Amino acid sequence: ELVIHPRRTQADEEGNRKSLERALDNYIYLLVKKKPAEEGDLEWGFPSVERNAGEAMRDCVMRTLHTHIGETPNTYPVGYFPMHFVDVGSGPSLRRIFFFRVCLVHGPYLCNRQLVDDFVWSTRAELKEYLGDGEMHAAAHDITDDI
């Protein structure tokens, strides 16, 4: 006999944004609050690392993933090219941030506590709560359109 389970889970009822078992009718996106390298406020954002000289972008994406959640076998990057980019800063301090989509098919999220202070799985509608109104929110809005 076919049993249909509700899309609203216990994690939804509890407001648990750390659970992958939430918002089952939406895509959810990993946001991390990195530990600051210097004194200052912590910022929420997508997982990121600096790209090594000569490193292929897709290899950098996988290194970013493994740095933040470990060697999770049920992940794959969608495509070989960035979905979006944002220029941050100006002059010699200009940085270009590229965005890639990576799917976690199934498995635990094991937060690297040496690098990350906190994390959430955010729906598109919740992104503004963490990213504010700036460039990152605008970029997130562009890349999180439903597939």
Give a written overview of the molecule.
This protein has 147 residues and is of the alpha+beta class. Helices cover 22% and strands 21% of the residues. The chain is built from four helices and seven strands; from the N terminus they run H-E-E-H-E-E-E-E-E-H-H. The strands form three sheets. The protein has a three-stranded antiparallel sheet with strand order 2-1-7. The protein has a two-stranded antiparallel sheet with strand order 3-6. A hairpin with a 6-residue loop joins strand 4 and strand 5. The relative contact order is 0.22. The model has no long low-confidence stretch (mean pLDDT 82).
Largest sheet: 3 strands, antiparallel
Strand fraction: 15-25%
* Mean pLDDT figure: 82
Helix percent reads 10-25%
Quaternary state reads single chain
| Order of strands across the main sheet | 2-1-7
Distance between the amino and carboxyl termini: 32 Å
How many H/I helical runs?
Answer: 4
Could you name the ranges where pLDDT drops below 50 across 5 or more consecutive residues? none
> What is the molecular shape?
globular
C-alpha Rg, in Å? Answer: 16 Å
Structural class: alpha+beta
DSSP summary, beta strand count? 7
Q: Give me the strand/helix succession.
A: HEEHEEEEEHH
